[in-house]
Amino acid sequence: MKGIILAGGAGSRLHPVTLAVSKQLLPVYNKPMIYYPLSVLMLADIRDILIISTAEDQPLFQRLLGDGSELGLRLTYAVQPEPGGLPEAFIIGADFVGDDSIALILGDNIFYGPGMSDFLRESRSSLDGCVLFGYRVSDPERYGVGEVDEQGRLIGIEEKPARPRTNRAITGLYLFDNRALDIAKNLTPSARGELEITDVIRPYQREGKAKVIDLGRGFAWLDTGTHDSLIDAGQYVQVLERRQGVRIACIEEIALRRGFIDAEACHRRGARLPKSGYGEYVMDIAKKQMEMGLR
């Protein structure tokens, strides 16, 4: 499975902050926003990842993440000239994906919860069609919402309905088999001039091959597209990290725990940030891993 992070767009709801920098490079508490979706793909054991951004922002992402080799990843970059809808990621990334299945995640979405690595890898291994992830919200009219049957199969999906029939929002994480590439390629833009992700999902729905996994009450899904939600996300991460003494979306720690890199490589990454709490944390977990190896 290949991963795609869609990190394009103008971030217009965050203007003027995003007039000079990509939304996905803004900080969410103590790390860049893109660390969060990247960490989700890493937790699913996905190591080949395409980052789609604007031409202006691409060099900044490359400066931040490089080719991914220091994390045991293979990062590729592509440009989305203008916002054209989520399915455009499949068109832009078709050569990158090849014959593989795809995990698409939005660059401004944050997911956190117990056992996430396990259910992501299970969803990936059992993929037959597409898998969507649902989350109960109080304002479903702001999102795409999905109805499911007793087996968790999608039976209806609407984009920002005026009268939602369910409060199950469809989050910004999608798993698709390779057929999504052909579906996206043959779509017609909507009245807004964009391709719609719901139009990619519907063929799977009609065949009974669109599965929805509800993220339970122990999970957090945060969309950081507005000033208030960006602040809320930062405060959420701050509280959890301070109370639990861990780092959410620490890509070096995930790479170490998943066996993508060894403790020495992890320590080198942390040593480049010696004056920050983040760098100290990375060096500390690497030292602990090295000490365990000597026992």
Automatic annotation (TrEMBL):
Metal-binding listed as a keyword: yes
E.C. designation(s): 2.7.7.24
Membrane keyword on record: no
Keywords: Magnesium, Metal-binding, Nucleotidyltransferase, Transferase
Domain of life of the organism encoding this protein: Bacteria
Record's signal peptide: none
GO molecular function, one term: glucose-1-phosphate thymidylyltransferase activity
Known role: Catalyzes the formation of dTDP-glucose, from dTTP and glucose 1-phosphate, as well as its pyrophosphorolysis.
Stated name of the protein: Glucose-1-phosphate thymidylyltransferase
